[in-house]
Design brief:
The chain is of the alpha/beta class. The protein contains twelve helices and ten strands. It has two domains: 198 residues, 2-enoyl-CoA Hydratase, Chain A, domain 1 (Alpha-Beta Complex), CATH 3.90.226; 30 residues, no CATH class. The chain is elongated, with a radius of gyration of 21 Å. The termini are far apart.
Length: 254
Amino acid sequence: MVELEYDEIDRALAVLTIDRPHARNAIALDTMDQLQSALDAAVGAQALVIRGAGDRAFVSGGDLRELSALRTHEDASAMAKRMRSICDQLAAFPAPVIAVLNGHAFGGGAEVAVTADIRVAADDIKIAFNQVQLEIMPAWGGAERLATLVGKSKALLLAGTGIALDAAEAERIGLVDLVLPRSSFDSPDAGWRSIARLLARRPATEIKRVISGVSPDEAIASFARLWVADAHWQAAERVISRTPRPRPAAGGAT
């Protein structure tokens, strides 16, 4: 089951949860359909979180019990194309996407994780592109996205050997952006929710668009749109009102 809900405090934040405890949140064919529906429903959110239910797995990959029924070249291609399309849509989502690695991300789960703009991980998780253990390779765009994050040689090392990285090492090489203690990870007022709420409240969608690649003129136009908006002037007034006026120098003109 895939659930989409909006944060109870900040309704601009959508949280997409893959909840398949019997399969460690593995992705089956019907999960792909549910992910597509959830993505369609999330359009308009100012930030999107994708996470797995529980604390054991973010996503443990594809559901082998179901996907093992795919025995032809055509069926394998269709499945890969279907899930890659969903991963491409996650990567292209207009607002910031945060992958919350509440548990291990293996195989296809690691591929889903790297579709996000930002990865926040609990300090006790592991991540691995370990499809080679099944004598296959990443099929959902994960190899290419991994190379963009860590470089081609390191991507080949990781995906070619299937070695698992702990959260600290994944953060060190840039595969994970932020590691948080498990004790604070799911806190409603801290952890990943506070980060996601900040992204939902700020003009991060416009920043993502510029980072993704626009011309200098378009970047300046984005800034100017934000500058003339009411939200900017309200925020500026709050800052100005808290700033003490400078005192004139002793003996200076009044």
